């Protein structure tokens, strides 16, 4: 079966997952994003690439950063942007997802940005939209958060220049994290030679070794000489039953503190997709310290989302 996000010329027409996305497409997105970064310094922060197009932001799950940066990105591409208030929309009256999409398509939508609690919802939409309509996954359930994965790769490339030779650690609640899944896929696609995953047994999914990552349960060991640390939030909303003794206990073993950070390389960078829980997965002095690039991630997210939307909108689905 053909990759559902590529057209028959191999061009990206939807962005649903980083799974199976060829390295040259990932690199093309990062290179395109790089051309958009300087736009933020200009007086007029706009380019006309999506002029006349209608972008619908459909967030069936909460979001602060992702939703806002998608909106800014679409506006900087000169699109008309519509943010749907889903809680007040027909979904709460029992309308199916596909009926909602058909109705919005009847309003001449060109691009849907979708966040949904159900893994696979953006795939389902992509299978049903008209050929000229594009879908971008803004996070689906536990499954994928491809634009977060891409903006994380942009941030790493910005600070470390090159992926070859890096050791990257992904730390915490990997089990429930769509960010971790997208990051691990992107890191391996881009040729990072050592990807480590660090967390308690109860928060790591099985089969990680098959993805080519090294698994650690001890932070001090796992952080030894790493170049990049990606911290994850404890996704309490997805935990069924008690997987952890207490947030205090978690912080003691897996919270990123100055003394644990001292194990990493002296120029290691610290990342976090947000929202951050200070004192649970990260100490405030680290989150606000010189190694943290957490706010850079947010800023780069705008350029990366501009790149994704302009690339998919430029590819035909016919
Ligand atoms: N904001 C990210 C997400 O939507 C990470 C998180 O919520 O912890 O997946």
Describe this structure in words.
With 318 residues, the chain is an alpha/beta fold. It folds into 2 domains: 23-144 and 299-313, Aspartate/ornithine carbamoyltransferase (Rossmann fold); 146-298, Aspartate/ornithine carbamoyltransferase (Rossmann fold), CATH 3.40.50. The chain contains 11 helices and 9 strands. The chain has helices at 23-36, 65-76, 97-105, 121-128, 146-160, 178-189, 219-222, 247-254, 258-261, 284-287, 294-313; strands spanning 54-59, 80-84, 111-116, 134-140, 167-171, 194-198, 214-216, 228-231, 269-271. The chain has a 5-stranded parallel sheet. A 4-stranded parallel sheet has the order 2-1-3-4, sandwiched between helices. Helix 2 links the parallel strand 1 and strand 2 (80-84). Helix 1 packs across helix 5. The longest helix is centred in the C-terminal third of the chain and has 20 residues, at 294-313. The two termini are 17 Å apart. The structure holds aspartic acid. The site of aspartic acid has 8 residues, from helix 6.
Helix-strand layout with pairing:
Blueprint lengths: L22 H14 L17 E6 L5 H12 L3 E5 L12 H9 L5 E6 L4 H8 L5 E7 L5 H15 L6 E5 L6 H12 L4 E5 L15 E3 L2 H4 L5 E4 L15 H8 L3 H4 L7 E3 L12 H4 L6 H20 L5
Parallel strand pairs: 1-2, 1-3, 3-4, 5-6, 5-8, 6-7, 8-9
Bound molecules: aspartic acid.
């Amino acid at each position: 079966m053909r990759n559902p996000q590529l057209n028959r010329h191999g061009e990206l027409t939807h962005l649903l997952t980083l799974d199976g996305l060829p390295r040259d497409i990932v690199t093309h997105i990062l290179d395109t994003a790089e051309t958009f970064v300087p736009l933020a310094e200009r007086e007029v922060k706009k380019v006309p690439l999506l002029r006349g197009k209608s972008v619908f932001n459909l967030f069936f799950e909460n979001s602060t950063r992702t939703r806002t940066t998608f909106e800014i990105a679409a506006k900087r591409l000169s699109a008309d942007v519509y943010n749907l208030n889903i809680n007040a929309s027909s979904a709460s009256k029992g309308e199916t997802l596909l009926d909602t999409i058909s109705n919005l398509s009847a309003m001449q939508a060109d691009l849907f940005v979708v966040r949904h609690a159900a893994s696979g919802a953006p795939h389902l939409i992509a299978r049903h939209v008209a050929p000229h309509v594009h879908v971008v996954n803004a996070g689906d359930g536990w499954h994928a958060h491809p634009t977060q994965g891409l903006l994380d790769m942009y941030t790493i490339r910005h600070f470390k220049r090159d992926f070859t030779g890096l050791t990257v650690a992904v730390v915490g609640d990997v089990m429930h994290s769509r960010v971790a899944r997208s990051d691990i896929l992107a890191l391996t696609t881009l040729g990072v030679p050592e990807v480590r995953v660090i967390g308690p047994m109860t928060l790591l999914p099985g089969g990680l070794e098959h993805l080519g990552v090294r698994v650690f349960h001890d932070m001090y060991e796992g952080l030894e000489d790493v170049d990049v640390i990606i911290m994850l939030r404890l996704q309490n909303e997805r935990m069924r039953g008690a997987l952890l003794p207490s947030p205090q206990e978690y912080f003691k073993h897996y919270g990123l503190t100055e003394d644990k950070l001292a194990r990493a390389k002296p120029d290691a960078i610290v990342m976090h997709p947000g929202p951050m829980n200070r004192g649970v997965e990260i100490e405030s002095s680290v989150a606000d310290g010189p190694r943290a690039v957490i706010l850079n991630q947010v800023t780069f997210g705008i350029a990366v989302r501009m790149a994704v939307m302009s690339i998919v909108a430029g590819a035909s689905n016919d």
